[in-house]
Amino acid sequence: MSPRWEPNPDIRTGRHVTYNLHAHLVFVTKYRRGVFDDAMLKRCEEIMREVCGKFEADLREFNGEADHVHLLVHYPPKIALSKLINSLKGVSSRYLRAEYTGRINRLGMGSVFWSRSYFAGSCGGAPLTVVRQYIEGQKRPA
């Protein structure tokens, strides 16, 4: 008896596409100011989860420290990752600055919350060496 095939819940399908795209994102506060406490991190996660939902993306993991946050986002191919990132940073900045004005002003952050830079790394799936071997194995015999 052959093993039963189990569908992978990470693999999604659209009308003309099957995909499984994950990105690891890291956002750092301006001047690496240690602004986050546990309550503020929880609120930041809520805001970013909402933003992801509007992009039909899924925030799979979220965590952070005083001066940065990490996100693992599962997103569809129709989304330009840079647009999602701009929205995540822009919306969270507006809400957090409005809701934690006193805390942010005490740290001298002014009207800017996040550093302009960010880290984005693709993740998930097979290691590149395995993918290369698979593609090489697809060559037609001469």
Automatic annotation (TrEMBL):
Domain named Transposase IS200-like is located at 18-138
Species for this entry: Streptomyces hirsutus
InterPro entries according to UniProt: Transposase_17, Transposase_17_sf
**By its UniProt entry, which Pfam families does this protein fall under?**
Y1_Tnp (PF01797)
Coiled coil region boundaries: none
This protein's encoding gene: tnpA
Q: Which domain of life is it from?
A: Bacteria
Q: Which SMART domains would you find in this protein's record?
A: Y1_Tnp
Protein name (Swiss-Prot/TrEMBL): IS200/IS605 family transposase
